[in-house]
Amino acid sequence: MRHLTAVPAVGLLAVGLSGCSFSIGGAEVPGDELAEQVSTVLTETVGEAPDLVECPDPLDAEVGAEVRCTLTHAGQSYGVSVTATEVEDEQVFLDVQVDEEPLDEGLS
């Protein structure tokens, strides 16, 4: 079950989702699978697919584990925080938070 906690009128920005879950087969969720799940959830929730979601690091399958991903849409990149809120058997429940402000790509 997916539960939407906040969706602004600006599309993919500042989206907060909780209660998202998916099955895993190990002690962590690989970054590519996590990125695919985040993209799917955003598409289903907002009605518009992001151009790209990248999660370079895996998410540990334990409550409180967090990774940062990057979402790119319409030429802008945003940080995305993904947190494991519950782990039950082989299901990980996620909280997905998209930053309100785009990343400043000019900073190193």
Write a concise keyword list for the protein shown above.
mainly beta; two-stranded antiparallel sheet; 15% helix; disordered N terminus
Topology, element by element:
Elements: E1 3-6, E2 16-23, E3 28-29, H1 31-46, E4 52-54, E5 59-60, E6 66-73, E7 76-88, E8 91-98
Antiparallel strand pairs: 1-2, 2-8, 3-5, 4-6, 6-7, 7-8
Concise synopsis of the structure shown:
With 108 residues, the chain is mainly β. The protein has one helix at residues 31-46, and strands spanning 3-6, 16-23, 28-29, 52-54, 59-60, 66-73, 76-88, 91-98. The chain has one domain.
Q: How many strand elements?
A: 8
Q: Output the strand order for the largest sheet.
A: 1-2-8-7-6-4
Number of helices: 1
Globally, the shape reads globular
Structural class: mainly beta
Rounded average pLDDT: 77
Report the helical percentage: 10-25%
- Estimate what percentage of residues fall within beta strands: 35-45%
Kindly report how far apart the N and C termini lie. 39 Å
Order of helices and strands: EEEHEEEEE
Instruction: Outline the biggest β-sheet.
Output: 6 strands, antiparallel
Low-pLDDT sequence parts: 1-19
